[in-house]
Amino acid sequence: xxxxxxxxxxxxxxxxxxxxxxxxxxLGLVMIFKCSKVVNFSHGNVAxxxxxxxxxxxxxxxxxxSWGAAVLLTILAVIAIAFLTYAxxxxxxxxxxxxxxxxxxxxxxxxxxxxxxxxxxxxxSLDLPVPRFSTAVLGLRITGYDLTVxxxxxxxxxxxxxxIDFTKLGIAFRAISENPFAAEVCGLxxxxxxxxxxxxxxxxxxxxxxxxxxTTFLSVTTVAxxxxxxxxxxxxxxxASLPGALVGGILxxxxxxxxTFYVSPEYSSTFLLGLILLALNIFPNGILAxxxxxxV
Amino acid sequence: MSDQNATLGxxxxxxxxxxxxxxxxxxxWLLIAIALCLxxxxxxxxxxxxxVCFANAIGVLSVSVLVRYxxxxxxxxxxxxxxxxxxxxxxxxxxxxxxxFSVPLALAFGVVxxxxxxxxxxxxxxxxxxxxTLALALAVPEIINNADSLTGxxxxxxxxxPLVPGVKMSLQRYYAALAVxxxxxxxLSRLRHSRQGLTLLLAKSHPAAADAFGTRRVWARIAVMGxxxxxxxxxxxxxxxxxxxxxxxxxxxWAAIFLLVGSVVSVYxxxxxxxLIGGAFLTLIPQFLSASGAWIPxxxxxxxxxxxxxxxxxxxxxxxxxxxxxGA
Amino acid sequence: MDVLTNALxxxxxxxxxxxxxxxxxxxxxxxxxxxxxxxxxxxxxxxSLFNCLTGAYSPQEGQIAFAGQSLDGLSPxxxxxxxxxRSFQHVALSPDLTVLENVMxxxxxxxxxxxxxxxxxxxxxxxxxxxxxxxAMGALADLGLADxxxxxxxxLPPGMLRLVEIARAxxxxxxxxxxxxxxxxxxxxxxxxxxxxxxxxxSGGLVMVVVEHDMDxxxxxxxxxxxxxxxEFVACGAPDEVRRDPDVIRIYLGSDDx
Lengths: 296, 328, 258
Ligand SMILES: Nc1ncnc2c1ncn2[C@@H]1O[C@H](COP(=O)(O)OP(=O)(O)O)[C@@H](O)[C@H]1O
Ligand SMILES: [Mg+2]
Prior knowledge:
Oligomer: heterotrimer
Number of strands of chain B: 2
Radius of gyration of chain B: 20 Å
Radius of gyration of chain A: 19 Å
Strand order of the largest sheet of chain B: 1-2
Number of helices of chain B: 14
Largest sheet of chain A: 2 strands, antiparallel
Largest interface: A-B, 48 and 51 residues
Shape of chain A: globular
Number of domains of chain B: 1
Bound molecules: adenosine-5'-diphosphate, magnesium ion
Number of helices of chain A: 11
Order of helices and strands of chain A: HHHHEEHHHHHHH
CATH topology of chain A: ABC transporter involved in vitamin B12 uptake, BtuC
Helix content of chain A: over 70%
Helix content of chain B: over 70%
Low-confidence stretches of chain A: 290-296
Strand content of chain A: under 5%
């Protein structure tokens, strides 16, 4: 019994930490989906490209800047990419949301190719300037990295929810995601709200990428692979609910951890598949949503 | 939702008149004749590449069928092609069973796999289905690697049993893939006019109307996924035979996305020439770019966007041009 | 009374969406051999009643039966196989299929060749297709649409599409035919042709219900008329009775048509 608890606590804790990261990724996907009705498949690849840009700007491969300046410059670049993506994708949505979604796949492919072209296929290491310490609380090893992730996630997500709940832009975002037509009638500017969502999503992606990279190394596929769990998180949360994305992220983080430890580390993607199918069938609109009817 | 699905950028395509149909048919026959004669003209490496190209064309068809008849998009069809590929490869290497038996079996397994996936996802559509197929694609390499006692794991399996003993193996690989591709396009052209095909097409654009005329939408979804999975398995079977090896690296998440790219580039066409365009795109571009692999995703991405944007803006452009001409 | 037993009946049908009552305990009996009209202002619940009868909506309360057999819990497809067929208020034809092929779907439920016939040129499948084509062509010809058989729906005017919709409904020789605003968008001569067609269809075994705003059409072809308003019947009877009913006059003077 105590052995079980001894394993369980650390597993749940570290699952929650990675879960926060999945949630950051998922929130970006959901933001975009809520207003543009597009699943942004380029999210992971663009975030991965961003991580490489930070590496390139700070390591001397492209520039030799301080870490903070590199991040700032990268965020500018990512915002530019978000602009471009939005400009390409938004006219397609009127035709079909699936076509627009496929178009984001094209952008993801280009981002991946660009990463390969500029930085090559080699593995690089990108560190995060975090306090290095670790303490044990109730048999739980807590590191500076854990606390950093937790703090950044809480601050970022808190700020996001604050903006959405209390600012004019946030209210417009909610109005548009509820009913774009009514919002337009009320004189809300669709375009700027959409851009707000795309830019916030892109920045969330960069934050997520920055936080995930120290746990592994950086390669062309690291961040993209990580974002796939974020997809699962978003799906489980219902894809159209921000709190759902948060809960979904943590759920995926914890469950994946438990599964790899207690069942099998080799079948984690298969487990994810099962989780997605299960969640979609039991909660077709996400774990936090009500079911709606259709109309003839 | 459903009505949006119906228009995956398909409008204004395939709506040409009778004359267009006749010339298209002549073109198709010409293309088939060329494909039949090509091995006498081109060198060995080309024959090999074209064989793989035919196999990929079948894969492109499997994705396009889902779009055309189901209104759905898959980014996980490597799952079904892996089923077909490993059926052929395992039967060949472990049991010495030749293609005559393994291909029909691969087809059957692919159909069953399609149905088994369709059942739990029967109520999903649009992006939700797309994401669950994505999860499917992710699981594939992992499953193959872990079942290494059967699949050969990372190294894969080598398919070498001839179909017809005595005939040059390179020719067999080429013609078998071509034959299956032709059979699939023929079958699909029949499906379009069959009772099942008609009801599936109605169920795609108006599920409630299909329901009211006796076609349950769950049935429609399962049928389409079964067909699509079966065709994808045939693609895998032919990839195994024409490409001579199967390994997990052929069934990655990216390979699944490339199948979708091929399908988009062929404008979801179900005919032999269209499938060839998609297959050639997937096979020949990497061939040409083999020295600089990083350009492949860029090129695919650009092509994907190019076709989609052309599908979106060309009708508007031609309309505007027509108006200008009319005004002048 | 053979005619009565073959009726499509509903008892106490109540339907609501999120607390809004759309149908409030309706009792209906649509008899075979008659043409029943169902009229009422927009939003009265006519289409919703059809949806309940065909199984597209599940009413929260009430029983629906056809020829004495309960239909409760049956899917729309299962009801279709019992011969209950409808047309849609918003034309629901496949844009990928020609007019002829769209109408062929109306007889699909009467056929059952297997999947091999769908992919291979086997004799049974070919015969089935020819048979379906012949039936569909007949129905199109009845409605004067033979020339349009090989056009795609996008190329035709809305009025014609509505007739195609009706052709698809009648081609399978249904036992119950529910027509939702069949004359909307038709011009005068088309409406007259449609009336004749519906009269010809009238037979001892067929339950026909017509939702329609064109009062001339309803009054001249219907044997009985139900008047629906806000999910409740305000009147029911022969055309002459309904025409004189004060409630009906009030409802229709309040709205802009007639
Ligand atoms: N699926 C649905 N969800 C919510 N409300 C509905 C739905 N279907 C119908 N309604 C409502 O039911 C009422 C009746 O609609 P309908 O049956 O279409 O009327 P009619 O056909 O008589 O014009 C309307 O107020 C409509 O808004
Ligand atoms: Mg109505």
